[in-house]
Amino acid sequence: MKPILKLMVILLLTSITGCEEKDKQAKTPDPVIFKTQLEALEKAKQVEHVLQDEAAQQRKTIDDSTNSQKQ
Q1: Which end of the chain is more exposed for a tag (fewer CB within 10 A), N or C?
Q2: Which helix (H) or strand (E) holds 32?
Q3: pLDDT grade, residue 17 (50/70/90)?
Q4: Mind listing the pLDDT tens digit for each residue in 21-57?
Q5: What is the average pLDDT across 3-23?
Q6: Boundaries of every domain in the chain
Q7: 54-66 burial, b if ≥16 CB within 10 A, otherwise e?
Q8: Which residues, in sequence order, are CB contacts of 71 under 8 Å at separation 6+?
Q9: How far apart (Å, rounded) are the C-alpha atoms in residues 3 and 10?
Q10: According to the model, what pLDDT value does residue 67 have?
Q11: Please, what sign has the CA dihedral across residues 27, 33, 34, 37?
């Protein structure tokens, strides 16, 4: 085999191997980012519950004041 052809084959195989390693790394999610996202989601759920409770209290207050005005 000619030396230039050998060099080209080696470069081609090296580039393919390098791409495969990058693909494996890209498929594995970063656990720190994933954990941060889960924490943010949990906080958002807690805020949602608080807002729903406050909205229910506000509706009750409005209903009570409306009912007292009708009587």
Answers
A1: C
A2: helix 31-70
A3: low
A4: 555 556 666 677 788 889 999 999 999 999 999 999 9
A5: 70
A6: 3-70
A7: eeeeeeeeeeeee
A8: none
A9: 11
A10: 82
A11: negative
Question: What single letter denotes the amino acid at residue 54?
Answer: E
* Token pair in block for residue 16: 């393919």
Taking CA 55 as the corner, what is the angle to CA 54 and CA 56, rounded to the nearest 5 degrees?
90
Length of the chain: 71
- Rounded to whole angstroms, how far apart are CA atoms 69 and 71? 6
Rounded Cα distance between 20 and 9, Å, is 17
H or E element in which residue 12 lies: helix 3-27
Residue listed under structure tokens 């390098």: 18
